Every structure is written in C-alpha cells, then in structure tokens.
Amino acid sequence: MKMVIAYIRHEAFEPIRADLLVKGFPSLSVSEVKGSGRQKGITERYRGAELTNYLRPKVKIECVVAAGDVRLVVDTILQHARTGGVGDGKVFVLPVEEAYRVRTGEAGEEILQSHPDASSG
Amino acid sequence: MTDVPSLAAAAQVNAGDTAWMLAATALVLMMTPALGLFYAGLVRSKNTLNTFMMCIAAIAVAGVTWALVGYSLAFDGDGDLIGGLGHAFLNDVTFEPRDGTTIPHLVFFAFQATFCIITTALVSGAVVERMRFGAFLVFAALWSVLVYAVLAHWAFGGGWLIEGGTRDFAGGVPVEMGSGFSALAAALVVGARKDYGRQALLPHNAVYVLIGAGLLWFGWFGFNGGSGFSTGNSSVLAFTNTLLCPACTLVVWFALDLIRGRQVTAIGAATAIIVGCVGITPAGGYISPGWAMVLGALVALPSYAVIVWRPRTRVDETLDVLAAHGIAGFTGILFIGFFAEMSWNGVADGLFYGDAGQLGSQLVAAVAAPAYAFAMTYALLKLIGAVTPLRGSDHEEAVGMDIIHHGEEAYATGEGAILVSTETHVTEDRPVAQPV
Lengths: 121, 436
Hints:
The complex is a heterodimer of chains A (121) and B (436). Chain A is of the alpha+beta class and 121 residues long. Chain A contains two helices and six strands, in the order βαββββαβ. Chain A has a single domain, classed as Alpha-Beta Plaits. In chain A, a hairpin with a 2-residue loop joins strand 3 and strand 4. The C terminus of chain A is likely disordered. By secondary structure, chain B is mainly α. Chain B is built from 16 helices and one strand. In chain B, helix 11 packs antiparallel against helix 12. The radius of gyration of chain B is 22 Å and the shape is globular. The N terminus of chain B is likely disordered. Strand 4 of chain A pairs antiparallel with strand 1 of chain B.
C-alpha cells in the first residue's frame, strides 16, 4: 500500500477528482493548504503598508492505493496538474503499513478505494 | 418681506417635505453599499472585494457623470427622447424648488443621483467574477448616461413614456427593467465565467446576503417612500406598500421553496425580499395596500421561474439581475395597468377600475424599456470591448479578481506576508511578519 500526497493548484483539483473517479479511485482526502516554493509572491497593499506574501494557497490531496495502482494515480495527477508554470506543485509517494475500515474493522488492501457498497451511496 | 422675489419662491419649499427627502436620499445612497454586501456574499471569497468595489465604483463614476450631464439629460426639458443640457454641470440647480415639487432643486437632484448610482451598480451583478475592473469603470460611466439617463427621461423627466400616460412611481422603467435587461445583454457580451457549468460556484457568505438584503429593504423605504417627493398621500402609500408587498413575496417564496426542495432557503429569502421590493417599486404610489399584497404574492412566480431556469442555460447572468429586477419590474409595471385605483392615488385607474387605456400605456413601457436597455447595453459593451479587453486571462480568473485588480484579499491573514518598507531610513534587512 502507498499513500500518494499531491500539492496542486486549486483549478487542477476538479479534473483530477473526476478522472480518478472514472478510473476507480473515489476515495481521497482534500485540504486547503498554504505553501511556499519557487513561485513568486503576491504583492498586496493595505493603506500605507506594501507587502509581499510568499505563502500561496494550494490544494493537498491524500490518497491511499495498492502499490500496483500508484503509477496510474500519479500519472493522472501529473496530467491534469501540469500547466508548465512555476507553482504547479509536487507529488510524493509514501509507504503505508496497515489500513483498517472503521465501520467493520476489516483490514488490508481490500478496504482501499472501490468498495462493493460504494455505488449504493 | 414677501415682495422679495427670492423669498417668495423659497416660501414654496415645504420644510416637512424637504426634511423627509433629505433622509430618503441618504437611505437610497445606503442601498448601494448594501447591494455590494448582498452581491459580495453571493460570489466566491476570492472575488469578494472586487464585487463590492463594483458597487462602490458606481457611486464614484455614476455620481460624477450624473452631476456633469446625466441629470440634465434626464430632467431638463420635455423632449420626447432625451432632455437638454440646461442643467449640465448643475447649472441652475439651486435652492429654488424643482418644478412640480415643494423641495429644493438641489435635493431633487441628489435624490435622483442616488437612483442612477444604485441602478449602475445593479448591472454589475451580471459580470462579476470575470470582468476587468478598468473596463467596468468605463462601462459604468457610459451606461449611466446612455442607458439610465435616457430611460429616466422617458419615465420621469418628461419623455415620451410619461407623456403617453405610463405610470411608473419609483423606477420600474429606468431602474428595474433598465438594469435587468441590461444585465442580460452584459452577460451575453462578456461571456460566462470559465468554470461556469463545470464546477459548483457557490455563494461564500450567506449571512452577507441576508444582511445586504435587509439593508436594501430598509433603504427601499426611502427609494419608494421618497418618490412622491413629499410627505403626502402617495409617499405614505408607497412607504406602507414597501412593507406589505415584500412580506407577501417572502411567504410565497417560502412556499415555492418548500414545494421544490422541501426546505426554505436563506438565500431564497434574501432574493424574495429584493423581488418584492422591486415589484412594488413602479406600483407603490398607485395601488391600494390590499393589491400591493396581491402583487407581492404574484411577483414571486415569474421571477422564481426564471431563477430556476436560468442556471440551466449557458447564460451566466451571474447574480440573476434579470430575474430579480428585470422580470419583477416588468410584473410591477403591468400590474399598475390592471389595479391602479384613483381613490387611492388620485391620478389613474387601471383596467380593473375601468380604464383599459392605462394597461396599454403600461404595455408600451414594458416593451420599450427592455428593448432599449438590452440593445444599447449590447452595443455599448461591444464598442468598449473593441477598444479594451472586457475580461482577463483564465489564469487571472483562477487567482481571483481581488488580488489581480485590487492587490488585496478580503480575508487576509498576514501569514507569510513580508512588509516591503517604503521608508528610506529603514535599512535593516529583517522580515516583518505583520504590517505595523
């Protein structure tokens, strides 16, 4: 099992979500984050104060998948998140040791992503 | 004393009327920032300031154009299509009473200025979240003269509609249909937001929307209650109708929400307040309180239908100015033709009380005003678009109008911000987390 963590632009999220859903990866977590990198800051002015903000808003996606699915998921993210400009973001892949489904206590790879009941929700 | 001419003229000014009109003018001016709040709550948080600023810009731009030429073109002389330039640059607008009123001409001018301002601000609802701020300023300046002043002349200033018998108490023609059908044209020319129809584009603060609607209703008592230019019967009637009509609209809107979705929505309620106030705007001083309540119930139906239907089209008339103002104003204008009552208003009966001709006059206005507003706005924006881009790049739209056009955020935290010092004596190369 692997966890894919991606930091991407806001506008890239919706196409990634839609594409992953079609490919059978409906389960992911999303958070609004701020980060600093090589993307240049935004200049803002409030009355007399002029300032540069280096923290830019990004979307963080976390998604745990079977090791064999990592390539597919990462490629999907790369495909939709790339604009070619500085600030497109980064993707990390981490090992995951165990996984449990809270509702039933089941463990292992079977609980990742597509669940037999998923379509009924 | 009475042999001094200026004092004799000044004696025609009525203190009570003037006091009320001063207050009413302030109430109507407040409606524009209230509209800013209403609109700002309906957009995404990254466009909050820009949306609000379009309303503030209307005060700036339309306030100036109105003083320069707009007022004169609307209210000087009784030309069929357009007024004269006799009052341009406020020429001859003094303490003397405005013809046909008992209030100083200056107060009359200021009251009408607030109408031009709010109407210009209303149109912005069609183009928020993508129109360039600079292009909007140019548009607002030209629109306030070429569309608003012309329609105001037709309906209020001695133009062909009022001369032809059209009754429009507080602005169903220039304000409501003028803004609503201009908004439709503006949405078509500027085009839809890039994410429209692909992503959920949700209101970011429903409480702003409710507060904005509440303040608009409050201001509307000045808008309608002041449109009799006195403390006389028509003003009193319009004032009370402004309470009753939107209340009925709310009740019916609740019912429609319940039927459609089994829940009464807050943003629906805010919308209903606007629709009810708009509906009573043209009719306020002409119909009885009973009929005002019927109008309040009736006006909800077509506007609700358009609000449900419009988002299913490709027309991104973003904040539904057409439904809330154009359609509701249309309903109110026609309603006068049926239910105006001489025993209440002293000037006109509608079809229901024996004068079918009144309905004809109202129908003419209900066709002419939308047609002119739509066509002129469409042409005007095409023209401006040929000179300067109306909207920015997709990237700018993604970042948000606040940062792109104003260099500010509505909800700035200061996190990660480094002060760029403009003071020459500060040489220390030390980042400062917060502006002092």
